[in-house]
Each structure stands twice: as structure tokens, then as C-alpha cells.
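RETRY 2/3 - previous attempt timed out on the joint model. Re-submitting the same 853-residue input unchanged.
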Amino acid sequence: MEKIILNNNIPLVLKENTNTPRHALCFYFKITEPEKKAGVYTLLNRLFLQGTKKRSAQVLAQELDENAIDCYSEMKQDFIRFKLQCLNEDFEKGLEILSDIIQNSTLEDFEKEVIKLKGEIQAELDEPKTLAMNAFYSTVFKNHPYGHTYTNILRDIDSITIEDVKNAYKSLLEKSPKVISLVGDFHSEDTAGLLNKYFENIQNCAETEISNSVEDIEKAQTVKVAKDDASQAQIIQGWRVPTIFDKDYAPIMVMNTMLGSSGLSSRLFLELRDKKGLAYVVRSTYEIYDNAALFNVYIATEPKNIKTSLEGFKVELDKVKQIPVTEAELENAKNNLLGKRQFFTETNLQQASLIAYYEDKGLGSDFERKFVDMVNSVTVEDIQRVANTYITDRYVLAVLAPQQFLKEL
Amino acid sequence: MENITKKEINYPYLTRPVEIYERENGHKIVLAHKEGGLVNVSSWVKTGSINETDENNGISHFLEHLMFKGTHKHKAGYFDRTLEAKGAIVNAATWKDYTFYYVTLPKGPENAYLKEAIELHADMMLDPVIPEEEIGPAFKLGDDKVSQKRERHVVIEEIRMRQDQPWTKIYNSTNFNMYTKHPYKRDVIGFPETIASIPRETIMDYYKTHYTPNNITTIVAGDFDTKEILELVCKAFDFKGRTNFENPEHELDTPVSEAKYIELKGKINTGFAITGWLGPVARDLKENIALEIVNVILGEGQSSRLYQNLIEKAKEPVFNVVTTDFYNFKDGGNFFVQANYKADKKDLALELIKREMTNFLNGDMTESEFVKAKKKLKVRFAESAETVSDIAENIGYYMTVCDDLDLVEQYSKALEEITIDEVNKIANKHLDLNHCVTTVLLPE
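RETRY 2/3 succeeded.
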């Protein structure tokens, strides 16, 4: 791995993988001006592939397809990132198109995009799981852009103007700290030269302190969503926990693996699925954003099992708090967590994505190595401590089920 | 060492040919070389809903769940725990023509993890106990007093999950109505009633009948010494003289005699629709490529025709989503048009789709659309050569559904050679608007 600072001051992290047919590039733009109306960045993100000063949307799509170039942008809570993937020989063509999209998007189709987005959201909300998740996140992150879920976008979208989106675009180009990563077989190419050529007009912006703190969850809150023809109840329970910048990051990662994300051998899977037959899907997740993180448990179960499932969660969470895990189980969880990293970073694009993610967070592109050490030094006491510190009675619980099953909650 | 035949296939974008071995008993072993630290071990069994009846519908998938419940050597949980403690992703899947089981994991120091994965995987494939207490007692659906809720309930929850998915709901209805007698008409997962009551013996018999050497292909993908791994797989897969089973041939179904329309209702806010057609058998490479091309042009991604004409250039908003899909099956694939639309615009939506299909079938495909689709399909091989899991899955598909890997080698040439005229002809042969099935789902 090699880090170069481009002429425009944007850091470029390079990793060479010989014998791979496709280059993968990630370009991160940190969001420094949070949206005031839900959906501004979502719209901007969608408009990126809807035409530039040089290319109409159709020409753009056609050109990408003809060259089999995979180029798209993704909006996450803290950043918008562009991903570019193409056969090695088409890399320069890909760069030229990406550079055009980033700098020259016209945002012309704004009104049409609003209509399309509304329609797609309505279709999504017909899925019970999406509807339940929507309720959960808009409650956990009330009054914060992290809580700008589908229903909040529907609420705000008609008040969003093209000016709002143009300002967001301008802010992204001019005020965002930026990072580029590139992974592929490029031994003979002057990669830095190419990137300097195509991105010379995009300036980096120094990191500014963003004050965008997220309100704590003050007390237990339950949010109910009635859906009378649901065959399954959707249950999500979540707690606020520290982020990747905290010393407890690694212990929480390990706890999460052990409890509900190692696969078929996690505690929740064994106890709630294998032994009690409550669910097909039951798991925990550790979701990390820049200014907040969540530890969540999720189950989808027959509506009459809601109480049993919640009790099941409590029993398992209490166990972690009260009974020290065995060294063997701890070791297994660590090995699972670290071993699976290879699986999640197998392709050039996955690698590029992770490298840029770390660089964007200011953790350094070699953070993966540090992470291994951090995980290996997690102790039995750490697990018990983080469980007791963070899994408290300050949580948000969202339940979707037919009305009759929600009454007793 | 036993008698074993070997052949090699050039697999696009891999640095070495893929090696295919066939043992005397018919068990096939495929070894694919891919540089990197990850390996994938999988076995594909030639059984799925194609071998099911109304009485046992869902048994292939239920068995797949129960295969994880321990062997005479290792209790339930050992397999998952041991391999996941090495960073493995362990899972399985059941579809119409096949059931497959896989482990993806780091190969470990001197391939130690790979070797252990092969041993455990073979043990699971050949010696499942399927204990009564893991299946759970048979019960009557709706009986709240069931105390031992075990795997039967897990699968029933999986069925429930699918019942709540609007797309799955209308897919199942369309699929069911597209066939008259072929077993493909049944939903792979089956019905809760069957899963609640099917006895252990029936499942065990099904296992013994279908999990035979000639019906299994074992694939190892990754970076290893092929001689050593071949020997290990042969040793671990000791079928102990298990009798082979030849899958019965099923008569191919003919498309419905006239367009069929089914309307369902649900507590939703938008409208959903799927129209489906029967397609060519999987071994008909040219016809499959033709429909893959049609799929790319009509309904894949934002540059596709349906998206451009019905969403981007729409005079008034009717559609929220419109895509196509093409599935390959041994006894004939399926082509689908899928749409989500404003609930009060159902008739217009169906009419617009019909118009687009008619225009296409009348031969208005452009040269640039054709070239684009070809390039996309070509790159798909590069994509699927990037991970050991994708390589193995692709090989598994060809070995199981197409009976051989020869089509992989022929694919690029056939793709290169196919003409617009041929694609138009094949599209017209299969995608006849008078012989399709449409299911819509609307708000109550």
C-alpha cells in the first residue's frame, strides 16, 4: 500500500493486486453541511447519474454500459462516495466519465427525480421490514439527519428546491474533505499522473470540526407500527454505543460477533432459532457512523411470539452482563471476526472501499493492522464491562405487527 | 489410487484451467485455481423442488436445514462452531434443480483450515443423523401448546417471512400458473402444513435416495496443491458403495394456451405485477444467451428500455419500478417482467408494458443496444471470476443444471457469434404475449 498526495491535496491510497482483471476506485466526499430537510443529499446523490454538461442521462448510461464500466455514487450517513469499476484497459475512459459526473452534473432532472424517489420510497415501504426499520431509525435519531428515513423524506420532499440541492452539491465540491483509493493491477500505469489529470480541478478541503452531535436516548421508548396482514412481527431493539474512535470499539465488535453476528454459531442464533424455533432470521448488528453508533438486535417471528422473543433477548443480554464468557468462546469470536475480514475484502472494490473508509475517518489506511491487535487484546472483562455499560434500560424498541398484538406492549 | 477420469476446461479470467474429475462411482470433483488467501468448498446435489410432489413439497429445503444437525462423529453445532471460529461463512441453498452446501474460509497455515473444512463438509454431506429432537415433534398448525419448537418452526418462520414479501407473493402465483404438470410449479420452500407434519423417516429416505455419488459435484476453489486436495476429497467422500439414483425425466410443459391473469389483494399502498413466460432448457446455450441479451436490453439497469421509456421519459408518473429477470433451469428457464406502479394506474401500467414488449418483438432492437448487452454479458465472467464463492457457484450451476462445464468454454464464442436476427427470432419464440401469466397485487 502506498499513499500519495495529489496536486489538488487529495490523499490517494494505492494498493496493487496483480492478476486481477478490473480496477476499482473509491472517491469519498465527507458531508460537512448536514441537510436541514430530509432527502436533499439523497436527491443530489441520485442526480449524479442523470446527466452532465457533456452527456445526457441516456448518453451517460449508454456509454457506461457499452464499456461495461460500473460507476455509481452512494450516499451514507456521513459521506457520499463514488465507486468506479472497470476492466483494466478501460480505466482511463472510466476516470474521464467519473470526473465529468463529479464536476459537471447538471441536476437538470430535479423535478422528475423527486417524483421517481417518492414512488420508489412508497414501493419500499410496502415491505414490512423496511417499514419497521424506518420507524426504528426515525425514533433513535430524532432531530438528527441520521434519522432522515423514508417517511421523513416523504414529509419534507415537496419543500426541497433545486437550490437546496445545488447548494449541497457546491458544498460537497468546495467544502468536503476528500479521499481517493485505487486497487488493481496497474504496475505499468502512471496512476497518480492520470488522477492528477482528471481530478485537477477538484480541490481538497481541510478537515473542519463539525459539531453535529446526536441526542442520547434518555429512556426506554417503544414505537409500534400496525400492519394487520403481517404474518411475522418485526422487532428491532437498539442501544447507543461508542463509535470506531473509542477504546470500546473492539470489545463491542467482539461482543456483537459472539452474540449475534458470527453466523450459525452465535448465541442469539443458537438460543432463539435453533433451540426455541422462534425465527428464521435473528441477529445483532453494530452500526457505526461518525457521530453515533448503535448496537441492535433484530428478530422476525410469528406475532404471538413477541413477548417470548423480547424475553429471549433479555436473557441473552443479561447473560453477557452477568456471566463472564469463557476464554474459548472469546477466542472463537475473535477468530471469526478477524477471519471473516478476508471474505469481506476479497474483491478489489471491497478493498478500495475499506481503505478509503479508514482514510476518510482519519484512522490511517493501515488501520486494519491496528484493528487486529485491538481485537486480539480484548479480554473477558472487557466484554462484561461494555455489556454492562451500554446495554441499559435506555433503548429504542420498534415492533411491527397486526394491531391486536401491539396492545400489550 | 482409484480409477478417475480427468478433463480440463478453460475458464475465462482464471489463470489456470479448471480441472474436472469423475470417479468410478460417478461423484464429480472440480478444482479451480484462484490466487489469494480464501478458499471455498462446496457440494452441489442434483435435487430440489424438481424431485418433489404435492405430498412432500418443501422436503429438499427442509432437509437442507436438517443437514446441519450433526453426524455420528460430530454433534449438532460442532460444524458451525468449529468452522466459524476460523472465520468461515457457512451456509446452504435450495432451488428448483439443486441443493448446495458451502464453506468459504481463510485457507489457514499450510492449508490447515481448508483441509479441516473438507473433512467436516464431507462428513456432513455423507453421514447426517437428522435427530428427532432437532426436527421437533410433528404438530398441527395453529396448536399453541407445542413445547419443543425446533427446526420445523424455523422453516415455518422462513415461509412466513416470504408471505410478507409482496414480490415473492406474486412471483409464486405467476410461477404456479405458468405450469400445468411440471414440478417447477411448486414453491421450493413448500407449505407450513407439510413442514409441520412430515416424518423423519420420509426425510431420511429422501436423503438416501438423492444424495448419491452420481448426483453430487464437489468443488474446491482457491490456491492449493491440486493433487493433494484431490486425494483428500476422494478419501473424505467415502460413499461406502451407496447406490446411485438417476433423476427421472419430466415432460416439458408447454406455455399456457392463452394469457392468464390473477389478481391478489394486500394491505399495501402501491401496485405490484409480474408477467412470466417459459423459456429454453438450460443446455440450449444459444437460446439462453439470446434471452440474457433481451433481459439486459429490456430490463436491466437505468439504461434499459423499460426504465428509460416507462420511467425516465414517462409523460405522467405510472411506474415506480420496472425491471426484467431471466432464470435458467434444466427443464426450461423463466423470463419475467416485474413492475411496481401507482395503485390506481394498474390498467395503464399493464398496457404500457404490453406496448413495450410488442415493439421489441416486432424487431426494433438497435445495433447499439445489442452491442451493449453483449459487452455486459462478457464482463459478467470477469466479475464472477473475482471471488472464490462466485467461481464455485458458477461452476456448481453448470455442473448441476447443465450437466457439464463444456458450456462455460463455449459461452464466449456463442456470445460473439449470435446475431440480432437470431435474438429476435428466439425472443418471438418464447415471449409470446398470448401465452404468458400475469399476477398483480393491489391494495385492498
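The radius of gyration of chain B is 23 Å. Closing ticket.
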